[in-house]
Sequence to fold (92 residues):
Amino acid sequence: MVPPLRKLRMYNNGRYQKGGGFVIDAPSLVSLYIRDYVLYDFHRIEHMPELEEAHVDMIQTVRNYKFLKAFTCARSLTLCLSFSEKERRGKE
Fold:
């Protein structure tokens, strides 16, 4: 049996890159750190009921805010987000 993933650190500093995406589906995560500066076509983060702390730094990558639901159980949460122009125009 494979032990569940408890900590995840994801770094992607490839500024000006575009395309692709990622999915994080790890319900046993306790700690999550994301630093991501790539404009993805998609990203999805599933609910993490055991999450205690999360640091999310996503510049140029956020096209909508729906993924924030995944962090509702976190006891400590740090966010640094920049929503795309397309999303901002849709909210005005």
User: Anything to note?
Assistant: Residues 7-91 form one domain. The first helix runs from residue 85 to 91. DSSP finds one helix and six strands in the chain. The chain has a mean pLDDT of 80.
